[in-house]
Amino acid sequence: MVTPFTDDGLLDLDGAQVLAERLVAEGCDGLVLSGTTGESPTTSDSEKAALVRAVAEAVGDRAAIVAGVGSFATRHTVETALQAEKAGADGLLVVTPYYSRPPQDAVEAHFLEVADASGLPIALYDIPGRTGTRIEPETMLRLAEHPRIVAVKDCAYDLMGTQKVLSRTDLAYYTGCDEYILAQYAVSGAGYISTVANVVPRQLRAVIDAFDAGDTAGARLLQQQAMELIELMMGSGLPGTVTAKALLGALGLPGGPVRAPLRPAGREATDGLLAAYEAMSRLSPTGADIC
């Protein structure tokens, strides 16, 4: 979920509650707060905790709340994990320590220390394109032995490695790449943690629902119908946070500005995003034109 800000850049908790309510009503089983899309590098620890409390109040037990708590420092990650637990999070998303590029034994020790410190279940966040360090499959296999390490947000773009871990552990794999929703789900993935679902939650949920119902052709069509918007939001050269907030603003939904160093999308980019959104919205969850 994006983190809404007011026009003057302050945390918009009322807006966060509105967005959370909409996402749950449109089919989201859980909400990930303070992840990449939630601009976690630019929000303070107190803002992160306040966001968890506000969203928990809004959705109650209708959806799980997963708090992003990872940083490049193990001590700070533990502190924010305990803070999120106290604020009411149901689980933690812990990213690989970044910038310092620790070796695999240090990566493993980092995650184990966080898992030992908190009583909440943990999803490992594997996104080497941003962190500079992969959680290698062999490291994943060892980490899976910890009782509170239960899931992975997978942005490694390595389907071979993903399937290796899926075949040997009970870890729940959630793709963080919207173009892989159906592909990873079809090989025993658990679902997705999506940026694009900030604006089209119902349509992406329909991909999973169709597959679960045995309608693989329908699931394939729905994934294909989402691809223009996915490409514009995630592959156009603008960060997903920027494109998501541009579309939310165009739709009259809370989002507000991005925080520096990010910059807002321009008019041309926003118009293109809106056109793709409107084209996708003209289709029903089963792919039939409803105009």
TrEMBL record:
<keyword id="KW-0963">Cytoplasm</keyword>
<feature type="active site" description="Schiff-base intermediate with substrate">
    <location>
        <position position="153"/>
    </location>
</feature>
<comment type="subunit">
    <text>Homotetramer; dimer of dimers.</text>
</comment>
<comment type="similarity">
    <text>Belongs to the DapA family.</text>
</comment>
<feature type="site" description="Part of a proton relay during catalysis">
    <location>
        <position position="99"/>
    </location>
</feature>
<dbReference type="InterPro" id="IPR020624">
    <property type="entry name" value="Schiff_base-form_aldolases_CS"/>
</dbReference>
<dbReference type="Pfam" id="PF00701">
    <property type="entry name" value="DHDPS"/>
</dbReference>
<feature type="binding site">
    <location>
        <position position="37"/>
    </location>
    <ligand>
        <name>pyruvate</name>
    </ligand>
</feature>
<feature type="active site" description="Proton donor/acceptor">
    <location>
        <position position="125"/>
    </location>
</feature>
<dbReference type="InterPro" id="IPR002220">
    <property type="entry name" value="DapA-like"/>
</dbReference>
<keyword id="KW-0456">Lyase</keyword>
<comment type="pathway">
    <text>Amino-acid biosynthesis; L-lysine biosynthesis via DAP pathway; (S)-tetrahydrodipicolinate from L-aspartate: step 3/4.</text>
</comment>
<keyword id="KW-0028">Amino-acid biosynthesis</keyword>
<dbReference type="InterPro" id="IPR020625">
    <property type="entry name" value="Schiff_base-form_aldolases_AS"/>
</dbReference>
<dbReference type="InterPro" id="IPR013785">
    <property type="entry name" value="Aldolase_TIM"/>
</dbReference>
<keyword id="KW-0704">Schiff base</keyword>
<feature type="binding site">
    <location>
        <position position="193"/>
    </location>
    <ligand>
        <name>pyruvate</name>
    </ligand>
</feature>
<comment type="function">
    <text>Catalyzes the condensation of (S)-aspartate-beta-semialdehyde [(S)-ASA] and pyruvate to 4-hydroxy-tetrahydrodipicolinate (HTPA).</text>
</comment>
<feature type="site" description="Part of a proton relay during catalysis">
    <location>
        <position position="36"/>
    </location>
</feature>
<dbReference type="InterPro" id="IPR005263">
    <property type="entry name" value="DapA"/>
</dbReference>
<keyword id="KW-0220">Diaminopimelate biosynthesis</keyword>
<protein>
    <recommendedName>
        <fullName>4-hydroxy-tetrahydrodipicolinate synthase</fullName>
        <ecNumber>4.3.3.7</ecNumber>
    </recommendedName>
</protein>
<keyword id="KW-0457">Lysine biosynthesis</keyword>
